[in-house]
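Record type: monomer structure entry
Structure origin: computed from sequence
Chain ID: A
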Amino acid sequence: MKAILSIGILAILISVAGCLEETLMPSPSGEVYSEIDVYQEPIQKPYTGDVIYREADGDTYALVPVAMYKTSVLVVHTKHYSDEDSELVPVDLCVVWGVLAEPEYLQYATFIQEDRGCECIYDVGSPVDTPDILCLFVNIHLIPADDYILQAIKTIRRGQKVVLEGFLVDIYRDGCIYIETSRTRADNGEGSCEVLYVTRVRVGNAIYE
């Protein structure tokens, strides 16, 4: 028997089929040769910095930082969107960490991204079928800090280990909350996606910042 756990399907976002672009890897700003430790929990610290303003599709969006965020993860699915929000939030990543990143656990789970969320389809009664394991994946809406970070993000593929750093942000439009970031890894369903303003990316040994 299969079961499904959904992360962060946002009703306010209209899904259109993602457009996967072939993108050349930009030159890294640095390199590091230590192993990416995907077994550690995401690091999140409260933060109230300056509001970041972005223009997209003729609207002005205010990105309000709520936390500093760094996560070392295994990518299990990627989605490049072409919808009403893709100019601001072009890419979503579904990622796992901890024991769920181990092949002996991952073999029992399948991940599907659509409608700005990620579903984990898992075998009932398998080692994955516990609350402690099922909280080890998230769907992250990525807002690149600049075009260089955007190009790096677009090269990320399923099966890669990456490190994402930046700020969790709430998105406001016309003075009203538009998309609120998740602040906990324990939630699921609508509204449980992290919204990450990305300032630094590590893909394998390459650093982009």
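Annotation 1: Residues 96 and 137 are 4 Å apart (CA to CA).
Annotation 2: The two ends are 44 Å apart (CA to CA).
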